Structure of Zinc finger protein:
Amino acid sequence: MGERNKKILLEQLQLPKNKLCSDCNAEGPEWASSNIGVFMCVNCSGIHRMLGTHVSRVKSCRLDQWADEAVQFMCENGNESVNVVLERHVPIYYRKPVPTDPQAYKEHFIHAKYERKEFATPGGCAHYETGMKEGMLWKRGKDGKQFKQRRFVLNMDEGTLKYFVKPDAKEPKQIINLTTLSTSLAPDKINHPHGLQLAFMNDNLTRQIYLYADEAKDAVDWYIVLRASSFHLIRKSYPQLSDAEVLRRLNSHQRKQGWMEKTGPKLTEPYRKRWFSLENRRLLYFEKPLDPYPRGEIYLGSRSEGYMVRDGLPAGQTEHGFGITITTPYRDYLLCCEDKEEQKSWINEIKSITTQPLTDQDNAGVSQA
Ligand SMILES: [Zn+2]
């Protein structure tokens, strides 16, 4: 009896509709919620346990005993049909978790999906879209490593996110234009599970701010609310962009980051190690990964305007590591990677940008010098 039920469940796991974790799309789920009817990975099963058995009853398909009716229920439901209902109204700006996402983000999603059922009804996510949010976050100081508490105020009517040094200060320390903002959650370099990174344009330079929240839920709430606000504002400001293009802008943050070496404008200058970060159409380089301002940036236009990337250094240059040459209408940039794999991966990322035609948003407010 037990063996037969296990066999049926393992067959269910082989079906295309159940092959990925119901909540994070990890491959090969082996756990299940016997009252909801979904299969999930071991990591998400741990989060389901935290919901309590009144919401989700977690069982292993391999290790636990299953009653006939429960197996029958799993066969009748499964990930695809349950998700059609519970994820029907996931908003376009909301990003469903992937296996590499921080734990806090997966927890937030699973609570929202099963406990609060935010995605099952049309207005379920309205609280992310009020365009107002205010609260205290820890912000990394410009020079030191210290984080200090700052008051952040989002106002979508104004199109701004501001922060204030003193809780009762009248004048903000910084005003961030939400249409230039991209936010990422728990980036490795902050080394905090509730970390946030904001990148935005300030006087035509890309600036980074590093933050963390005391509570995981608060960090994720900020992340989603900022994404929702930026999405709606970009949509409104650039009606000709498709939803996919707006999303690409929101997700463009940190396409790739890492150390490379770079020569100065006179190509004979010695190579210097710099931290590179690819943000939308800009390849920024920093002296150190957490610096608020880059030392400089390489704007990446399209191939038809004369922007190109190739492996190797120009003839006559001394070989140095694994070289990359970026050609722009203004000058050549010579970069070097430590190994061939990095070289290939940077070239592919940069090429994917230069082969893309410019959108209106790329041109808006962006100097191309
Ligand atoms: Zn999962």
User: Anything to note?
Assistant: The pocket of zinc ion is lined by residues 21, 23-24, 26, 40-41, 43-44 (CB under 6 Å).
